[in-house]
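Why do we care about 3D structure at all? Because function follows from shape, and shape follows, mostly, from sequence. That is the central idea of this module. The next example makes it concrete: a single protein chain, its amino acid sequence, and then its structure expressed as tokens.
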Amino acid sequence: MEPKKRRFGDRKDGWRLRHTQSLFAVMPHLMKTRTDSQVFFDEEIDIEYLEKYVRAMRKEHDMPTFSLYHLIIAAVVRMFVLRPRLNRFIMNGKAYARNRLTASMTAKHSLSKDAEESCIKPQFEKTDTVFDVYRRVSEAMDKEVKNIDDANTTDVAAKILNKLPAWMVRAFVNFIIFMDHRGWMTEFINELSPFHTSFYITDVGSIGIQPVYHHIYNFGTTSVFVAMGKKTVVPVALPDGTVSTKKVIRVKLVLDERICDGHYYAESFRMLRRLLKHPEQLEVPPTEFPEDEWI
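And the structure:
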């Protein structure tokens, strides 16, 4: 993201919103946690054309592991770029605009049901295309997951904490929360934490189930959680009265309603539908880069 001069009240990971509407200034005090303010969104995505698009991308652009997962991540990243209010978070009763665009995701080291999981958090730029998103996610996967012998920093920290007595882990976590609420948390911890991110995304369809409404964490700053389900075939009523079928996936989102209003969310998800209906738009950088006007 573009560098911006830090002012009093800003955090290392976000700019304080100073021009909020009256209702939004009060909402963080009425709904003090993200679990208080969760709203749920469910979308069905026709993937028949998207599957053809994915196969073409693999063949024509030397992207052998490109999948619907990468495509949906690219669409969500573009939505965040064009709808910047989505990249906000609430901390300690105050609203902030995040100064970076990241996605947290969990990946298994192998296909074994007992394989360990790792969290990765690639960072994106406003100009990123679907090719850039694929590259960044693939590089993060390769670096942090596929080389099992070299555990990533998040895994190492988790293993160290797991060896400590419960009271010490509790004290450490409480200290981190105290620092985070006051904007004093170090850049290292922020980079380490998968819970300090623009959005968290998971593909539970890869383990053969439909998407769940996954809670957004009170710890950290995540305001959006995206869950993708398995591919399925559903009936479709045609205009002539006959019934056909189409292949779809369901996507469920859990959102913090304190960061923007319902109309803004609705317009954002309509944009997401358009991007997935015409994924070719993601092959070129956006032509505009709107800023959060409340900073």
